[in-house]
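DM from R.C. (forwarded with permission)

"hey, sorry to bug you on a friday — could you get me a structure for this? deadline for the figure draft is monday and I only need the backbone to look sensible"
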Amino acid sequence: MTDLSQQTNLKPQEIMLADDERQQCEVWTRVMGYHRPVTSFNIGKKGEFHERKYFEECRAQLAA
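My reply, with the result:
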């Protein structure tokens, strides 16, 4: 792991991590009434998860 405790005034673009220094983000989702990590899904359920369409709510237009 990179020790940044002794470094100051770093700009965000100066901090670079190698792939072996990164930690994988674990994604959880609600399935059949309880939460489970996506990594524990079988092939079929992983396919269903990747085909999901997410709800996007548009901002309401206010009457003038």
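R.C.: lifesaver. The chain has a mean pLDDT of 82.
me: no worries. Strands lie at 28-31, 34-37.
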